């Protein structure tokens, strides 16, 4: 039993000593990528020692003995993302060492992979780059992807990812350096980026295209340059004779760029440019070159043409490009040359021909041009005589001759009509070689343009334009304008031509006025015109301002009646009628000139009305009697010429010169004499050789004196002047008195007529206007006949003196009416607006009310009543009267006539003008009733 027990015990011991218990609850885990941790519970039974081994297959085990009581351990320096097998061994050491194991396997966490290896980039095409690399040394994680960033500079161009490291980057920009950044991402962490740089190359295809293009362009440019050089060379060699004209190359550059002026601001612009003595105008004007060197003038300089230019050595001559070419005669060199150039109109090309005034040598050519160019209007803007020089050949037949032949051209004169500013001649032009019938040509000669300088009133320019336009029509050829072109004093054609050119556009108020630049472009056409005087440059503007402000106010008698009834219509009734509007446009000219002399202390008592004082510039200056007496009878005409010098020492009388219709003749508007000024009044009558005094007032108006009675029965002496009343003739409407004036130191008596119109109160309009008209027609017979040669003696003889109470009230109406009737008689047109405007410029207080203004229209309308659509000329009571013999007929007429013809021509012109037609009927019955029964002292003067 014991032995059995012992055996069992021994067996038991044996067993005990051979098998230790395995450690309990053995676990391991990863703390992070490189650390791990194992825990266990030591075995309960006996064991000698314990050891722990861990490894990664196929590496061998790494074993460390552990403390018997230890229950955990930290593992260090592990590799990331690696399976570790850990064995914990409890051991009993005896004859035979026995152990029991506990095993645990775990994997460490992921960590960042290492950089990729062997990164390289290579260009596959001009803009494609391949990027490749090898795996990183440590993935530290499962298989991931390769990431590629493509950058240029700091900008990210694109990103790509692939499981393998073989990128092909296409569509890059040409000629650019790129940065390729590659990293490996093991699904959790990305490794560091490796970078490599590579550049794309230029675009070879584009480059080739560009190069080809460049070559072509260069070749073309080269060809052009070569051609230009060749061309220039050719021109140089052919134009050697023209070198003097190439001097002023930059004349276009100096030309100022002047903006067109809109019609609305024309007046302001004019005032602005006129400021400071026209500084801005001057700058503009001076920028216009005298000669436009870009246009050649070869033809004019050819030797056989030189004698055809008025001034051989100086301009003007015609530019080649727009000169008027005549037909060739027998191939004669130069037979096609005439000094004349085409000028464009506002819208019509070649509307004008600017020509040199014909010389004796060129008259035939001139008429050949008229015939060939089919011109129907010739405008001559010069008088034939200037001083004593003949400025142009008289190139048309006289009325006596009837016709004349110029080369092959036959010119016949049919009519010669003189008007104040111009002479109109109706011609028929034919050609001997051609069967065609003759053509009517109108020759308009403007006579009132001052020899040197410009007309005072820009309205004259507009009037000339109207007349020319009236004669030209759609079918007529170019309008031929000619002047003389004097070196020092620019002639007048130049100012004439542009104005019609520019006004021929539609006269709508909103339309901008044509720019002066365009005008100047047209002026380039004719060298002569570039001499345009500065004053004329301003005159053009003044005329435009005038036109813009006042418009056309002239009306022909044939249209007067419908025109007037339209003008009086108020539409709508609240608005002023057009006639009232026209009146309102009249400038007042209040204090527009100085009135110093009349306002001087010693002269104040000589004024009847302190408000009506004559302007200094046109007052009638009285010479002192002493000087008057010094004059000898013969040279009295000459010695009274210089009124201006006498301004200071002359005596004052309240009287003004007023323009008459027949310029430059004038009338005198005077106040009714005061008791103290009767002597001065007669002095004025004597000194100015007054023939007719018109008195439009009664002596008394109510209780007040309106006019001193300046005449007495019988003889009366006023200073040196003795007045003898010879005759009185009274009718219901007016009284005519005849006086004989005699100066104490002279022999010849002079007859002066006085027409006193009855019953016209200054505040009202005349009750019987017809009688006023009759009186005017009657008194005209006492006036000397017009003779334009007198014209130059400005302000000398003033045959007509008008006075009322203050020299303005009735006088203004009378003067306007007088001028308007003359105009209606002569030209069959009236311009009430201009007539009144001119009076207002001459004296204060003229035609101040609308009633008076309208009255003027009405009187003319009733004097020329409309009958069956035709205007009937009223009968002239003076029809029977002979032409006044006092006209100085010996003097040659300025009208281009030689002295023997003067007499005939003058009377011819007067027949037209004055309507003195001896053959026409007898005095009208009205005349007999209202006027004096027989003319007082018939034509004895
Ligand atoms: C792992 O954890 C231990 C402590 O917990 C730390 O000291 C060690 O830096 C860690 N290693 C990594 C790779 O995070
Ligand atoms: C590591 O252990 C995981 C399971 O924990 C197993 O899926 C994997 O295959 C093992 N890796 C290796 C190399 O034995
Ligand atoms: C226990 O582990 C050791 C070490 O690896 C080994 O040699 C031995 O054979 C193991 N014993 C058993 C019973 O598995
Ligand atoms: C790596 O890839 C995974 C999955 O694709 C992504 O979630 C992670 O953000 C990536 N890591 C980095 C650093 O890019
Ligand atoms: C000896 C020891 O502590 N054993 C424990 C092993 O783990 C299990 C379950 O987790 C426990 O029940 C044992 O007591």
TrEMBL record:
Membrane topology: Single-pass type I membrane protein
Location of region: Disordered: 627-646, 867-941
GO biological process, one term: regulation of gene expression
Source organism, top-level taxon: Eukaryota
Phylogenetic placement of the source organism: Eukaryota, Metazoa, Chordata, Craniata, Vertebrata
Biased composition (Basic and acidic residues): 876-892, 902-914
UniProt protein name: Receptor-type tyrosine-protein phosphatase C
Domain Tyrosine-protein phosphatase: 281-547, 579-863
């Amino acid at each position: 039993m014991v032995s059995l027990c012992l055996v069992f015990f021994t067996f038991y011991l044996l067993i005990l000593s051979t098998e230790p218990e395995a450690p309990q609850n053995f676990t391991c885990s990863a703390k992070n990528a490189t650390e791990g941790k194992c825990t266990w519970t030591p075995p309960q039974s006996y064991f000698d020692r314990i050891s722990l081994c861990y490894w990664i297959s196929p590496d061998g085990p790494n074993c460390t003995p552990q403390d018997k009581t230890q229950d955990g351990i930290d593992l260090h320096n592990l590799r990331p993302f690696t399976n570790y097998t850990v064995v914990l061994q409890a051991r009993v050491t005896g004859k035979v060492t026995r152990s029991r194991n506990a095993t645990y396997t775990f994997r460490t966490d992921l960590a960042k992979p290492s950089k990729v290896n062997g990164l390289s980039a290579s260009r596959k095409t001009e803009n494609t780059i391949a990027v490749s690399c090898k795996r990183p040394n440590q993935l530290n994680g499962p298989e991931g992807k390769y990431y590629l960033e493509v950058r240029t500079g700091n900008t990210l161009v694109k990103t790509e990812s692939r499981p393998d490291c073989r990128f092909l980057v296409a569509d890059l920009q040409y000629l650019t350096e790129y940065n390729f950044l590659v990293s490996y991402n093991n699904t959790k962490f990305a490794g560091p980026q490796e970078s490599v740089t590579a550049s794309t190359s230029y675009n070879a295809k584009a480059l080739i295209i560009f190069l080809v293009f460049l070559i072509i362009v260069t070749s073309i440019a080269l060809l052009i340059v070569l051609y230009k050089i060749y061309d220039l060379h050719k021109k140089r060699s052919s134009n050697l004779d023209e070198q003097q004209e190439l001097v002023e190359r930059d004349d276009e550059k100096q030309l100022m760029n002047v903006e067109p002026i809109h019609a609305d601001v024309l007046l302001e612009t004019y005032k602005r440019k006129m400021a400071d003595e026209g500084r801005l105008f001057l700058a503009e004007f001076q920028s216009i070159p005298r000669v436009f060197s870009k246009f050649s003038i070869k033809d004019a300089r050819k030797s056989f043409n030189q004698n055809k230019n008025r001034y051989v050595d100086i301009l003007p001559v015609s530019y080649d490009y727009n000169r008027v070419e005549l037909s060739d005669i027998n191939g004669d060199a130069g037979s096609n040359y005439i000094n004349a150039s085409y000028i464009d109109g506002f819208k019509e090309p070649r509307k004008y021909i600017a020509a040199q005034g014909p010389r004796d040598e060129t008259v035939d050519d001139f008429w050949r041009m008229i015939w060939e160019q089919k011109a129907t209007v010739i405008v001559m803007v010069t008088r034939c005589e200037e001083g004593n020089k003949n400025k142009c050949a008289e190139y048309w037949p006289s009325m006596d001759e009837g016709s004349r032949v110029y080369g092959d051209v036959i010119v016949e004169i049919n009519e010669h009509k003189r008007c104040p500013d111009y002479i109109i001649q109706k011609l028929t032009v034919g050609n001997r070689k051609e069967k065609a019938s003759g053509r009517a040509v109108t020759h308009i000669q403007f006579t009132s343009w001052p020899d040197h300088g410009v007309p005072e009133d820009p309205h004259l320019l507009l009037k000339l334009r109207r007349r020319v336009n009236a004669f030209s029509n759609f079918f007529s050829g170019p309008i031929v304008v000619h002047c003389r072109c004097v070196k020092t004093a620019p002639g007048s054609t130049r100012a004439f031509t542009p104005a019609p050119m520019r006004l021929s556009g539609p006269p709508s108020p909103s339309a901008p006025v044509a720019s002066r630049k365009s005008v100047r472009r047209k002026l380039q056409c004719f060298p002569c015109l570039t001499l345009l005087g500065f004053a004329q440059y301003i005159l053009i503007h003044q005329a435009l301002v005038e036109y813009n402000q006042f418009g056309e106010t002239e009306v022909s008698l044939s249209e007067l009646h419908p025109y007037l009834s339209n003008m009086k219509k108020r539409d709508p009734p609240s608005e002023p009628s057009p006639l009232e509007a026209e009146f309102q446009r009249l400038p007042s000219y209040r204090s527009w000139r100085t009135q110093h002399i009349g306002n001087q202390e010693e002269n104040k008592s000589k004024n009847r009305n302190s408000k009506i004082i004559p302007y200094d510039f046109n007052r009638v200056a009285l010479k002192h009697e002493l000087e008057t007496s010094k004059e000898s009878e013969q040279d009295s005409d000459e010695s009274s010429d210089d009124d201006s010098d006498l301004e200071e020492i002359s005596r004052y009388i309240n009287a003004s010169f007023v323009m008459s219709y027949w310029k430059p003749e004038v009338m005198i508007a005077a106040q009714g004499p005061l008791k103290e000024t009767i002597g001065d009044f007669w002095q004025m009558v004597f000194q100015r050789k007054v023939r007719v005094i018109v008195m439009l007032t009664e002596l008394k108006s109510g209780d007040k004196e309106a006019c001193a009675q300046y005449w007495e029965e019988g003889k009366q002496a006023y200073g040196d002047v003795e007045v003898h009343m010879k005759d009185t003739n009274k009718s219901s409407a007016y009284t005519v008195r005849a006086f004989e004036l005699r100066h104490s130191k002279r022999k010849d008596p002079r007859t002066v007529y006085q027409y006193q119109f009855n019953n016209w109160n200054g505040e009202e309009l005349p009750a019987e206007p017809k009688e006023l008209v009759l009186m005017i027609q009657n008194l005209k017979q006492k006036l000397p006949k017009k003779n334009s040669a007198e014209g130059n003696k400005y302000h000398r003889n003033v045959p007509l003196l008008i006075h009322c109470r203050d020299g303005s009230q009735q006088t203004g109406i009378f003067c306007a009416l007088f001028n308007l009737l003359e105009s209606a008689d002569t030209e069959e047109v009236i311009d009430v607006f201009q007539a009144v405007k001119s009076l207002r410029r001459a004296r204060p207080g003229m035609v101040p009310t609308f009633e008076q203004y309208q009255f003027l229209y009405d009187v003319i309308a009733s004097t020329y009543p409309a009958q069956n659509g035709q205007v009937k000329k009223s009968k002239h009571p003076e029809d029977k009267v002979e032409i006044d013999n006092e006209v100085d007929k010996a003097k040659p007429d300025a009208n281009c006539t030689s002295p023997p013809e003067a007499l005939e021509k003058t009377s011819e012109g007067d027949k037209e003008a004055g309507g003195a037609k001896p053959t026409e009927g007898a005095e009208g019955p009205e005349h007999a009733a209202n006027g004096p029964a027989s003319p007082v002292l018939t034509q004895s003067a």
